[in-house]
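One thing: could you explain this record?
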Amino acid sequence: MSTINAQSDRHTALSTTNGCVHNWSQTLIPTTREAPSDAETSSHIYMVRAGYIRQVGAGIYNYLPLAWRSLKKISAIVREEMDAAGASEFLMPALMPIELYKDTKRDVDYGNLLFTLEDRHGRRSALGPTHEEVITDLMCGAVTSYKQFPLNLYQIQSKFRDEARPRAGLLRCREFIMKDAYSFHLELEGDAGLNHTYDKMYQAYTNIFTRCGLDFSAVEAEAGPIGGSASHEFMVNCANGEDTILYCPESGYTANVEKAEIGQRDWSFDVAPTEELTKHHTPGMPGIDLVAEHLGTNAAGMLKSIVFRRTGTENKWVIAVVRGDHDVNEGKVRDAVGTGVEMAPEKEAKEAGFAIGYVSPRMIDSTKLTLVVDPDALAAASWATGADENDHHVTGFNWSRDMADAIAQDKIKVADIRNAQAGDPSPRAQGAKLEARRGIEVGHIFKLGTKYSKAMGLSVLNKDQKKQDVIMGCYGIGVSRTLSACIESAHDDNGIIWPLAIAPYHAQIIVIKPKDDGVMDEADKLAAELSAHGFDVLIDDRDDRPGPKFKDADLVGIPLRFIISPKTIEAGQIEFKARADEGKAELIDRAKAVEAALAKCESIA
């Protein structure tokens, strides 16, 4: 039996057993010419128009047969690679008692994104957005010896997040399918360590998305609400993706905008003043652009001072200063000061003396705080900034003159604390500049460390008989999101263009005049031949005009297409084309149909 290798020595795009054969008339493929009124993205439009999904409620969808077939193929690839990497599949409940969050406080972190409900007995529960607490609680009672480590468990399950504004179909919905895995260790290094498993998961994810036929990048990332010390996102490269990826074309360094570092930038406090410090009344001017226009400058000529609150130190407050046209990066501020930080609650900050919206670096003279400044906020001789007084700003601010005492006492920390952007110096190749592209996140891996085990009491006696907190890793893939991201990155004006490995069917047979004698018999015969070589086949047996059937074929996006008609049967020929190829189908000898399909698979796999 012939099979087609799909970018992996271990696995094939076609089945090693007979593929399936389905008739269009006997399955549910409700194609439509009209896009849903709320659809904004190509994947949402085409998944509805091609009969893959139907909305049940806001952010909640039925997966119809075509979508479910592709989802099962993605899931099968995920299972094969996870199993090959040493992980074991199991299943946790979607519903979890709210008490599981009492130690981690992630119910607070998730806020309104967490689906919560109360049963008839008054017990509060949550629908799991992820399952760190559930599995950590399980491990507390299931592992008792250091000899049980390492462990790596995964599940594929529906997850829930109560998005305020669900959009983009399956890309940002309230119920979605996800693979999440969790690993457990007692050391960082070595074959049993977290770093070793993390590297195996990185490779498994690379294999998964390669086998799915996706153009993707693995990028350094922030951990977000999951937490942890290190993480990577796997992003499908897509011109209209929702996330920005920054990369160095010379070194290959790649990171998302929240994580991307910026290379060395020259800076100095020793810049002589050129203007007097002058106060201006600036009432009723929301937004930095209005203030800048009023002051005769622009956003790049202003300083933006953001107040953060931190814990674990006497200096509770942090002021982060960036240029007015840049955005403060909370993760970088956290790294710069060495403790966790959060945007200061406005009421609390005002009670501490901060004029929120009008704060300047000079607050260091009147409040015990840490002042962190981005290098680009030191480049000019004169700046506009807040006046530390409501409805007032100043112009002519100069670091060397107006912050002389703080500079002399070494109270100002200079660090990379802003979001990187295209054109910034590369952190990995001197002289190179970062470039930007767009992407859609489909996978994320984290080194959690002891964040959850310490909070929930997951510890065991190690081989030295000393109590030790268990080290954890977390590894997620958006299965339904991968389906949507694939369409987002692979379509044309006529519909979807599926990669072979995750297409709902590998080949489609379009039957012209199916009621004519012998036409369906010939279609069934070809389908059986293709099936014997591992192809999944969809026969369009509808008694409809050729035009609509060809339009539907483009819309649903099956990779290979055969057209059978009384005329081709009489000539001993068949029409054949690949969905991704431009132009009309070519006529080939009927006897060479399977050979042509196999050859085309080799070229597109």
Observations:
- The two ends are 18 Å apart (CA to CA).
- Residues 384 and 395 are 4 Å apart (CA to CA).
- The first strand starts at residue 21 and ends at 23.
